Amino acid sequence: MLKEVTKDTLLIEVLENDKTKKVLERYQLPCLSCPLASLRLGSLKIGEFCEIYQIDLENLLEELNQAIKEK
After folding, report:
1. I need a labelling partner for 46 at 20 to 30 A (CA). Which of 19, 37, 52, 71 fits?
2. What's the number of CA atoms in the CB half-sphere (13 Å) around residue 50?
3. What is the Cα 40 distance to its own chain's centre?
4. DSSP letters along 54-70, please?
5. Sign of CA dihedral 2, 71, 63, 26
6. Cα–chain-centroid distance for residue 67?
7. pLDDT the model gives residue 39
8. 45 beta partners
9. What is d(CA 36, CA 16) in angstroms, rounded to the nearest whole number?
10. Is 45 helix (H, G, I), strand (E, B) or coil?
11. Considering the entire predicted model, what is its pTM?
12. Which residues contact 3 (CB under 8 A, 6 or more apart)?
């Protein structure tokens, strides 16, 4: 079970949690549904993901961790 998201958390872990997956879906990123990207999901870290898509890492981490804390 995902307890905290850091820059080193794998993207696949975030996508396996319904709450954090919804946060990523709000960004409407094409790689979340791309078949080719699915090959890298197991090794792509959130920090790398943010760098690729030019997403503010600190804001995303805050949103993801807040989603985990919600009941």
Report:
1. 71
2. 17
3. 13
4. T--HHHHHHHHHHHHH-
5. positive
6. 12
7. 73
8. 10
9. 18
10. strand
11. 0.85
12. 68
Tokens linked to 36: 């080719």
The residue with tokens 């996508």 is 15
Place of tokens 């943010």: 50
Token digits of residue 48:
């790398």
Nearest residue to 44 via CA among 3, 4, 7 = 7
User: Hey, what are 66's tokens?
Assistant: 């807040």
56, pLDDT greater than 70? yes
- Give 14-51 pLDDT, tens digit per residue: 988 999 989 988 887 766 666 666 677 778 899 998 99
